């Protein structure tokens, strides 16, 4: 049976539990996590504002342009909303986002970006590619794919003291289930899929 998430009620009509889930889903959306992670790894790569600049440049191709593609699709009525509830609508914007990330990799390579930043962007490319392949047949949780990868990469870069960030990933999964955007299986599979990005980062950094 194909999973088809229902349209959510207006925010004012949601229960306190649903409102909390909405705030988590929106605040910790994939694009937000991608931008934040790139800035943190950018800083970590040089421990200076130069590294932060590299992170900002990478965030343009990996976060800003992809979310702009989605919002443009929403305005045109081609996508349900910024979280793209309907699986079949996800493939085109995800593919366009993949192209943006590819261009970003080329730019970072030509400009001799720090190795750690380049490794992260390639890791994001791998994660996005695997997500597209799964999305062709199943509505996996992209929120948790990005969240799971983010947590693992943070631990790799900054050490085990970042393990508590896993609570944020768990909260995101909870929010997606409460909003009936995904099943538990889709959330868990998404989190596991984030490991492909983390493994790539670990091998290339």
Topology:
Elements: H1 16-27, H2 30-46, H3 49-75, H4 91-110, H5 115-135, H6 142-158, H7 166-178, H8 184-204
What's the quick description here?
This is PAP2 superfamily protein. The chain has 205 residues and is mainly α.
- Summed up, the helix count is 8
The largest pleated sheet is described as: none
Quaternary organisation = single chain
H and E string: HHHHHHHH
The residue-averaged pLDDT reads 95
- In total, the number of domains comes to 1
Distance between the termini: 41 Å
Strand content: under 5%
Query: Structural class of the helix and strand makeup?
Result: mainly alpha
Count of β-strands: 0
Q: Calculate Rg over CA atoms.
A: 16 Å
Overall geometry comes to globular
Describe what this molecule looks like in 3D:
The structure is a single chain. The protein has 205 residues and is mainly α. The chain has one domain (19-204). 72% of the residues lie in helices and 0% in strands. The chain has helices at 16-27, 30-46, 49-75, 91-110, 115-135, 142-158, 166-178, 184-204. The mean pLDDT is 95.
Entry keywords:
single chain, 205 residues, mainly alpha, 8 helices, membrane, transmembrane helix
């Amino acid at each position: 049976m194909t999973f088809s998430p229902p349209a959510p009620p207006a925010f004012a009509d949601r229960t306190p539990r649903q409102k909390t889930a909405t705030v988590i889903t929106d605040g910790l959306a994939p694009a937000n996590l991608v931008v934040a992670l790139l800035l943190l790894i950018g800083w970590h790569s040089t421990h200076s504002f130069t590294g932060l600049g590299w992170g900002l440049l990478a965030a343009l191709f990996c976060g800003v342009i992809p979310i702009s593609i989605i919002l443009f699709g929403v305005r045109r009525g081609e996508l349900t909303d910024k979280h793209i509830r309907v699986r079949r609508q996800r493939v085109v914007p995800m593919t366009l986002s993949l192209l943006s990330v590819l261009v970003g990799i080329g730019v970072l390579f030509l400009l001799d970006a720090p190795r750690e930043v380049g490794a992260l962007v390639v890791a994001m490319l791998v994660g996005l590619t695997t997500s597209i392949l799964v999305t062709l047949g199943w509505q996996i949780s992209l929120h948790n794919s990005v969240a799971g990868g983010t947590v693992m990469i943070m631990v790799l870069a900054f050490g085990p003291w970042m393990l508590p960030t896993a609570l944020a990933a768990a909260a995101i999964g909870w929010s997606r289930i409460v909003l009936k955007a995904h099943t538990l299986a889709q959330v868990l599979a998404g989190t596991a899929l984030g490991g492909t990005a983390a493994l790539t980062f670990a091998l290339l950094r």
